[in-house]
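[recover] target loaded
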């Protein structure tokens, strides 16, 4: 039987698609050209042949409507900017310990700034999918200053000369290369404020160490000045550690190459966004992976109904996705791992009118984030109004899992474990210092195995410094230092939560503005709470209808934590609740059950 003309056409199309995959059709036609052609032809679906696409400038979608871009097969397409370096191109300096070196002018970068938070854009190395770490001393833990000569706090008066910290540390002065810049990564005062600062000088006679820049909070208690030194060749002394010289573009690392079959390593060094989506509508990016890159994977701005689905975002020096403005954009059913900064940033909506952006992160796995920026780099960060974070699994990070500001967010049904691993006074889910945060609901999350703190507990849910109008309901918190902390806010609901094996604290609702250290924030009306209240039209709808109690703050005692509801919580094998007497007086506290068995 002879094939029909339609069968022949189908066979020809199939041969072309397969041919593009087998013979690297991507080299004949760039990925951006494919996208542009699909837009020109007004295609509704663009199928990308499977393969790895190495790009050196952003892919762009601008002003595009109704387009699905998907891989030929599930997770068949990877977009990257990395250098794929064959192992035979490495120089072996010491075969016994597996010490290798590679130099490339492409890796040269400007000198690092005197101070920065977490990451200065240096190249990263991945072997068998695992990131290597910049060399450090000591390999584990921290050095604590022997004594602090000058705290070096940034002065409040901008005209005052900024004096950097000065301190003594015998351990550090004995372990650095005098010929190279020395950078220290530290929790200089608080374990929720990390910063890398260059050493300006070390006096060999007195042992005095002076940094090159001040720190916002200075150097001192409660951490006592914790730090470790980074990126010197002498510090490369253990498996999967590397040194990088920005002047020569040289990397030096230790790896045995004995436990996996690896023909090449990946080196990331380029600094741009892999995919930029602007002013678009009804776009789906499906089954496409973004891997091994020094900066953001995807930015979505001022767009509607753009979704990234079934993607892997892996090995990124900074964050994975940033969504700003627009409506109903998000990430779904995707895996994010090994991120230097936050995972997904959601921003949008209108606070004055409480118009929701409805951006979302749903059913994703986000792990090993905040690798470089150690604090306030959560798996998901929400600013604005009306975002949704639901059904995600979040794990392994030094600080927050979810950080939010704004209104009317839904944070629900997430499983969060092993976060806040290296900080103190932190919350897995955290917000703070704003009376005008009403409407957010935190419900049905499971939070467990938080890290222990050296000072000030870590909490599963932390509504800090008079955060108000938030509902915390039906959450399950287990095997963590502490459960829920409410720092004196108004009209917060803490109900129907189960707290198991939280030995340091279960539920704490204090009145810090009334009789505690925070009182001066209410006396000084230039500080953050008052400007944030003033910026919102509390006397106009919808604010006057939904949050009428905000209007009373000006006329009554702003320190009183009015309207709290703490009911029907189950507390098992945990510390008893600590609820300030004034919370009882001005709120409702009832039917909280304790079981010490």
């Amino acid at each position: 039987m002879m094939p029909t003309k339609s069968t022949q056409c189908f066979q020809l199309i199939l041969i072309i698609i397969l041919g593009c995959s087998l013979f690297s059709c991507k080299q004949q036609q760039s990925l951006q050209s494919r996208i542009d052609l699909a837009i020109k032809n007004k295609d509704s679906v663009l199928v990308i042949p499977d393969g790895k696409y190495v790009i050196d400038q952003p892919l762009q979608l601008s002003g595009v409507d109704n387009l699905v871009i998907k891989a030929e097969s599930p997770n068949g397409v990877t977009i990257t900017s990395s250098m794929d370096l064959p192992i035979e191109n490495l120089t072996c300096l010491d075969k016994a310990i597996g010490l290798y070196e590679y130099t490339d002018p492409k890796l040269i970068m400007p000198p690092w700034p005197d101070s920065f938070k977490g990451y200065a854009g240096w190249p990263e190395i991945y072997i068998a999918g695992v990131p290597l770490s910049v060399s450090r001393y000591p390999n584990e833990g921290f050095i604590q200053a022997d004594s602090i000569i000058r705290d070096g706090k940034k002065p409040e008066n901008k005209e005052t000369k900024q004096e950097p910290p000065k301190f003594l540390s015998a351990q550090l002065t004995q372990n650095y290369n005098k010929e190279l810049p020395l950078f220290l990564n530290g929790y200089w005062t608080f374990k929720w404020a990390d910063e890398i600062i260059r050493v300006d000088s070390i006096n060999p006679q007195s042992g005095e160490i002076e940094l090159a820049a001040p720190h916002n909070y200075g150097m001192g208690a409660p951490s006592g000045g914790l730090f470790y030194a980074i990126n010197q060749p002498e510090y490369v002394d253990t498996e999967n550690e590397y040194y990088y010289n920005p002047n020569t573009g040289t990397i030096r690392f230790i790896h045995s190459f004995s436990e996996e079959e690896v023909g090449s390593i990946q080196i990331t060094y380029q600094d741009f966004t892999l995919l930029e989506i602007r002013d678009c509508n009804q776009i789906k990016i499906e089954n496409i992976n973004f891997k091994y890159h020094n900066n953001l994977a995807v930015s979505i701005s001022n767009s509607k109904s753009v979704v990234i689905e079934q993607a892997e975002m892996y090995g990124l020096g900074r964050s994975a996705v940033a969504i700003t403005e627009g409506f109903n954009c998000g990430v779904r059913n995707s895996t994010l791992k090994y991120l230097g900064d936050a995972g997904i940033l959601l921003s949008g909506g209108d606070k004055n009118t409480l118009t929701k952006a409805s951006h979302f992160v749903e059913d994703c796995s986000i792990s090993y984030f905040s690798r470089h920026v150690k604090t306030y780099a959560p798996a998901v960060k929400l600013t604005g109004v009306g975002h949704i974070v639901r059904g995600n699994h979040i794990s392994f990070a030094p600080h927050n899992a979810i950080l939010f500001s704004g209104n009317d967010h839904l944070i629900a049904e997430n499983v969060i474990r092993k976060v806040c691993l290296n900080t103190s006074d932190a919350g897995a889910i955290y917000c703070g210092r704003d009376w005008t945060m009403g409407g957010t609901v935190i419900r049905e999350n499971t939070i467990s195995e938080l890290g222990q703190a050296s000072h000030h507990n870590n909490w599963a849910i932390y509504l800090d410094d008079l955060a108000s109008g938030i509902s915390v309901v039906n959450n399950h918190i287990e095997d963590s230092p502490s459960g829920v902390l409410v720092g004196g806010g108004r009209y917060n609901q803490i109900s129907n939560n189960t707290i198991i094996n939280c030995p340091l604290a279960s539920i704490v609702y204090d009145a810090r503005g009334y009789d505690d250290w925070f009182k001066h924030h209410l006396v000084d009306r230039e500080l953050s709470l008052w400007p944030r209240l003033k910026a919102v039209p509390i006397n106009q709808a919808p604010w006057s209808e939904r949050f009428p109690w905000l209007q009373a703050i000006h006329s009554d005692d702003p320190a009183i934590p009015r309207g709290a509801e703490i009911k029907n919580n189950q507390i098992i094998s945990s510390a008893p609740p600590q609820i300030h007497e004034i919370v009882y007086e001005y709120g409702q506290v009832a039917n909280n059950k304790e079981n010490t068995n």
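[recover] notes: Residues 211 and 228 are 13 Å apart (CA to CA).
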